[in-house]
Amino acid sequence: MKKLLIGTALAAITSAGSAMADGHATSACLITKTDTNPFFVKMREGATAAAEAAGITLNSYAGQVDGDNEAQVAAIETCIANGASGILITASDTAAIVPSIEQAREAGLLVIALDTPLDPIDAADATFATDNFLAGELIGRWAAATLGDDAANAKIAMLDLAISQPTVGVLRDQGFLTGFGIDTVDVNKWGDEIDERIICNEVTAGNEEGGRTAMENCLAVDPEINVVYTINEPAAAGAYEALAAIGREKDVLIVSVDGGCPGIQNVADGVIGATSQQYPLLMASLGIEAIVQYAADGTLPENTAGKNFLDTGVSLVTDQPADGVDSIDVAEGTDRCWG
Question: Alpha carbon of 88 to those of 112, 121, 195, 279: distances in Å?
């Protein structure tokens, strides 16, 4: 098959008419982890707008909770049965979903992983995502620079995503530790580190309730934790609630990843010290463009030079910039936020 740089795919949307003229209307599926997280809401908005612009049908599916692999498997089966041209998916279980992805590709569907790389990454035809390792690294570097000499004695809570360790959670976690200056041991998994500054690894399911419970568990291990890494901003909000309940919300650095409007407001309000902002609408709209192009003439998207995925960008957002760490302020983050 030919390959086409995704940046040129927008011009090719009009070619979708040829596919529909053959009597087979182009259609796409979007499968997200949930339909409530603002990140996935914005992703669906981006995909919907791009599908409408291209004149194709979009069917959207989601799990009940983050980690609902069975619902995603069922959605893939439905997409295959309905003769979809392609699937965009944010996988809840990046390894367990692979057999279903293989079935879709064998049936001729283009499969693009959004945000969360599959395990292995080449199980999908392409991945459109934030550089999640860099997103974690940015907040790690910021936290270490903000603490200065005190970073050597930090007490860190790691509030991760899920016990199954989906790739997005591993990349952000290991990126943060690398940025902070901690040996990750095996960069392909979290929890094997031996640095005494890491007090706990707890999972949050990426929501506020999970973040609160995880933070409470970590505080039970050591009530003097002073740095909190969180997989995303809903988890960060929950962690803040747990810290506020014991009067420690003012003296703990919380860092996160996402860049949704509620999260950026939490940076402005001092709930989160810094967050790495990603751009889900762009991921989804580029994904739809790629499916349209594939349906028209079989072209495949290309990766960003030097990477094994198409990088949709990331920016550190904080009103407390740190020397040597590139960032944008809350005002600019607000202009770019979603949700």
Answer: 5, 14, 38, 15
Instruction: Please state, in angstroms and rounded to a whole number, the distance separating the CA atoms of residues 325 and 222.
Output: 29
Provide φ and ψ at 255, rounded to 5°: -125, 155
DSSP states of 243-305:
HHHTT-TTS-EEEEEE-BHHHHHHHHTTS-SEEEE--HHHHHHHHHHHHHHHHHH--EE-PPT
Q: Give which of 179, 130, 161 is closest to 235, Cα–Cα.
A: 161
**Tokens coding 329:** 């302020």
Residue 310 burial (10 A CB sphere; 0-12, 13-18, 19+): buried
Each residue's pLDDT tens digit, 319-330: 999 999 999 999
Average pLDDT for residues 165-181, to the nearest whole number?
96
Q: Look-up: residue for tokens 């279980």?
A: 93
Cα 314 to Cα 217: distance, rounded to the nearest angstrom: 31
Q: What is the pTM of this model?
A: 0.82
